[in-house]
TrEMBL record:
The lineage of its organism: Eukaryota, Metazoa, Chordata, Craniata, Vertebrata. Pfam families: Septin (PF00735). InterPro entries: G_SEPTIN_dom (IPR030379), P-loop_NTPase (IPR027417), Septin (IPR016491). One of its GO terms (cellular component) is cytoskeleton. This is Septin-12. The keyword Manganese does not apply. The keyword tRNA processing does not apply.
Length: 296
C-alpha cells in the first residue's frame, strides 16, 4: 500500500528503543575449562571491567575443588545509557582431576535448574510481568592449546552440552602456538566436530535467511577462535592498548593480526547477543519445556 504522506510508522522503532533502554538487558554467560586457561581474564577482557570471580591472592595456593563448583557473579554494567545485567558463571574444578568421569553433571544440572526456575514462574496463574531470566545464553568452552586433537573429555562435554545450550569453543592462550600450529590445530578441531556431529554455535539449522547464512558461514569457518586474554594496558605507538607484554614485544588482544579475540567479542556482544538469547528461549528452553510438560 502506497502512502500519500508521512504517517509516522517509523517512530515505532524509537518507542521500542526507549522502552528497552528503560527496562535494560539481561545476559548470562558461562565459561568452562581447566584451571589456568585464562577464563576469568578473558571475561574481564570481553567487558573491559572486573566482572569475573576474584582471583586468588598472589603467594597463596588456591585449593583445587574436589568436584566442579559453580560460581556465579552478577553485575550491572552501563555503556552510553544502555544498562545490561550480566551474570558470569565460572566452573572451577572442571577437568582438573585425574578421574574426570561425569564431571559435566553439575554443569548440566545447573543449566537445567535455570530452565526449571523459568518454567515454574511461567506456569503460575498470576505470573510476573517480567520473569527474571537466569538461563545460560552462551557457554564459552576453553580448549587447551595442545596443538593435537581434541581430548575425549572435550568431545564428550561439547556433545552433551550442545544439545541444551549454545556452545562457543575457543582455543585458550593462543599465543603459545605459532601461526602454522594454530591453523593446523583449528583444522583438526573442525574435523573432530564434524566427525562427532557436534553442533556448536552458530548452528546451521537455525539460519533464518540467506544474509544470516552468509554471515554465519564466515564465522563457522573461523571457529574455534584462537584467543588471548589480557586485563592490563600498555603503551604502543602513543596509544593505550590491552595486551600481554613479552620480551619479544606486546601481544595486542584487540588486534586481528595478533589473535581472534575481536571475532569472539563481535559474536558474543556486537552481532549475535540477541540471537543467542532467542535461540536459548525458542530452541533449548522450548525443548526442555516440552519434555517437562510431557513428563507431568
Amino acid at each position: 500500500c502506497q502512502l500519500f504522506g508521512y504517517v509516522g510508522i517509523e517512530a515505532v522503532l524509537d518507542q521500542m528503543k526507549i522502552k528497552t533502554m528503560k527496562t535494560g538487558f539481561e545476559f548470562n554467560i558461562m565459561v568452562v575449562g581447566q584451571s589456568g586457561l585464562g577464563k576469568s581474564t578473558m571475561v574481564n577482557t570481553l567487558f573491559k571491567s572486573k566482572v569475573s570471580r576474584k582471583a586468588s591472592q598472589p603467594g597463596q595456593e588456591e585449593r583445587i575443588p574436589k568436584t566442579v563448583q559453580l560460581q556465579s557473579v552478577t553485575h550491572v554494567i552501563e555503556e552510553k545509557g544502555v544498562k545490561m545485567k550480566l551474570t558470569v558463571t565460572d566452573t572451577p574444578g572442571f577437568g582438573d582431576q585425574i578421574n574426570n568421569e561425569n564431571c559435566w553433571d553439575p554443569i548440566i544440572k545447573y543449566i537445567n535448574e535455570q530452565y526449571e526456575r523459568y518454567l515454574r514462574e511461567e506456569i503460575l496463574i498470576t505470573r510476573k510481568r517480567k520473569i527474571p531470566d537466569t538461563r545460560v545464553h552462551g557457554c564459552v568452552y576453553f580448549i587447551p592449546p595442545t596443538g593435537h586433537w581434541l581430548r575425549p573429555l572435550d568431545l564428550e562435554f561439547m556433545q552433551r552440552l550442545s544439545k541444551i545450550v549454545n556452545v562457543v569453543p575457543v582455543i585458550a592462550k593462543a599465543d603459545t602456538l605459532t601461526l602454522e600450529e594454530r591453523a593446523e590445530f583449528k583444522q583438526r578441531i573442525q574435523e573432530d566436530l564434524k566427525t562427532h556431529a557436534i553442533s556448536v554455535y552458530p548452528q546451521e539449522d537455525f539460519d533464518q535467511d540467506p544474509d544470516d547464512r552468509a554471515l554465519n558461514d564466515r564465522i563457522r569457518e573461523e571457529i574455534p577462535f584462537a584467543v588471548v586474554g589480557a586485563d592490563q594496558e600498555h603503551q604502543v605507538n602513543g596509544k593505550r592498548v590491552l595486551g600481554r607484554k613479552t620480551k619479544w614485544g606486546i601481544i595486542e588482544v584487540e588486534n586481528p593480526a595478533h589473535c581472534e579475540f575481536p571475532l569472539l567479542r563481535d559474536l558474543l556482544i556486537r552481532s549475535h547477543l540477541q540471537d543467542l538469547k532467542d535461540i536459548t528461549h525458542n530452541v533449548h528452553y522450548e525443548s526442555y519445556r516440552v519434555r517437562r510438560l510431557n513428563e507431568s
